[in-house]
Amino acid sequence: LYQKMANLAITDDLTKLFNLRYLYRALDIEIKRCRRYNSTFSIIFLDLDSFKLVNDRHGHLYGSKTLVEVASILVNVLRDVDIIARYGGDEFVIVLPHTPVDMALKIAERIKSDINNYQFLREDGLSLRVTASFGVAGYPDHAKDEIELLKLSDQAMYMAKSLGKNRVVLASQLFVTSGSGR
Questions:
Q1: What is the pLDDT of residues 75-84, one digit of tens each?
Q2: Could you tell me if 61 and 45 are in contact, meaning their C-beta atoms sit under 8 angstroms apart?
Q3: Across the strands, what pairs with 92?
Q4: Is the pTM of the predicted complex or chain greater than 0.85?
Q5: Who's near 24: CB < 8 A, 6+ residues apart?
Q6: DSSP reduced 3-state for 136
Q7: DSSP H or E run through 43
Q8: Which of 28, 31, 22 is nearest to 93 (CA)?
Q9: Lateral strand order in the sheet of 83-88
């Protein structure tokens, strides 16, 4: 019973992925591990494009089912050691231990392709197409703590949306565009 309650405290009810509480704990642990072993890791921040239209056109029940199907795609594409969390609404964060940013970019592109090629809600007779925008950031390449890492990957994801959606943007592209020289 205790174990069941502990799992419920760190799991998103809908998708059965990790929740925000667990994500922050995992990022803290990963930062400490990387500092100790002079290692690297990356995160992917993804947000479904125009997801509100799914809810508006088909209802929130189908929107929720779509999120569950996205979660299933993520679980099937990623490794067991990767941490997949539902950040909120239609946003997900993936922690990729021991993964440099160039590999994280490839993983994000693969996920983007899998989402693009998937027919959502087929069992319900709808066969919807959904796309997503992705932001990728790495430790220590782009940030020195978990808050900055999340912030940069989120900003990169928003840049992907502003560039036309359904694309992957690396956090270092933010520095080139903003002229901050980082």
A1: 999 999 999 9
A2: no
A3: 46, 86
A4: yes
A5: 146
A6: strand
A7: strand 41-48
A8: 22
A9: 83-88, 91-97, 41-48, 132-139, 168-170
